[in-house]
Amino acid sequence: MKYILVTGGVISGVGKGVVSSSFGAILRACGLHVTAIKIDPYMNIDAGTFSPYEHGEVFVLDDGGEVDIDLGNYERFLDITLNSDNSITTGKINQQVIAKERKGEYLGKTVQIVPHMSNAIIDWVEDVASRPIKSDGDDDDTPPSVPDVCIVELGGTVGDIEGRPYTEAFRPFSRKHHGSFCVAHVSYVPQPASTKEHKTRPTRQSVKELQDCGLLPDLLVCRSENPIPLPVKEKISSFCNVGLDEVICLHDQSSIYYVPLVLRDQGILEYFQKRLCLEYKVPLSTNVLSSWEALTKKLETVRREVNIVLVGKYIKLHDAYASVIKALQHASLQANYKLNLKFVNAENLEVDAEKTNPDLFHESWMTVCNSDGVIVPGGFGKRGMEGKIAVIKWCRTLKKPFLGICLGLHAAVIEFARNVLGHKDANSTEMDPECKHPVISDMPGHTNIDMGGTMRLGRQTTVFSKEHMDYSVVRKLYGNRKEIKERHRHRYEVNQKYLQELENNGLYFVGHTNTAPQETNVWKLAIVVARNGRR
Prior knowledge:
The protein is of the alpha/beta class. 36% of the residues lie in helices and 22% in strands.
């Protein structure tokens, strides 16, 4: 097993996740099996209870794990399926150590950060790295593959007090796996507007911090806004005690899908082959990244635009909708369109906004009106809910293409119940627990006492209704399959007692989970379609 530890310096959010994913994509293109682990040094057990403004969206895995968005990049770049154990947090490690202490497994010893916590970290990494993994394209009968390389990304920046136990754990790990272990340090090289010069001091200081932790960087990935000139690269090489070929300069790209190509062009494949003694299954003389070249070429040549508006409540941080944005980008490119995505705050579409801020109200509605389609993604809480319902009504009445995901789907059902069925007080029990017509209600067995890990999570099977198979657009998009498997993250669903009334008026439920409806008083809604121009 070969290990690549990716650390970060100077500032967070500099691109460690994309660099880690790109390393994996390049190695996978050479025929190697690659797995990935993300370490987040916070005390939370997982990302499930985070506000989207903390770290962006919560990415959901097949097994129901709620993890950092970087694992979404890993899955997209590597075409693999990860699980909850590929995400390490300080909360998980502490929970494991304390559980062992309570059972007396430390034989009366004083439990300490070193060696007990540090050993738990390494044991976790080695265990997950050795587990066979499945590729996304594999069917259920295809056996998983044993990884050749494990990429471990350490979140945060070197020197953070939260990350100290992890750098201390990898210090002896680097000796144990000498020759099979590589440290890639991602650092930021600023270019102040006042001087227009790239400054190397922050990178040199972050390398010193890493050395103080007992880790020596084998590879430096220097991030910058603009290309770094050769003299600056030579200076970084000299002061940080790494070879010139071990300094990778990575300036901002128009798309993250250029990053694997930039790394390849700077000799990363040859470096990993030499440093980790890798045996590539595809000769380097072949163009191993031809698919990535085709992707980026298409990005450059697509001319037709499609204008999509995303109506949400967390639009100040676009990472809160990272997976939705990626899906829209991929779908647009597949259809030979260039995505022009606009973000509209749902609160600005509400009636009250017309009084408090009329300019913003009319500007927001103008953006919606100029779109080719509207998407309302998930969220929690009632803030902005009436704005979402308003834009969905506009889409329905004007036959504008619309997609509601999670809370957006709930809002669509509420809007239909209010304006087509005439239940003016229809709502969700999330927004109004005492509403007269709870067309969306909480799911039995999913308690609100503990917020973390209590929703309906992970990969679920959706079965298409035989009654509605013939005219389901969604089913056609899935290749007319009888059932599909997608990931869920929700605590509320459509109330089954309203199903017949909704369907009688044109809102059809064409997909449901394979759980028998009689087992619960609510329908496990997956897909909604309306005929006669209503949705």
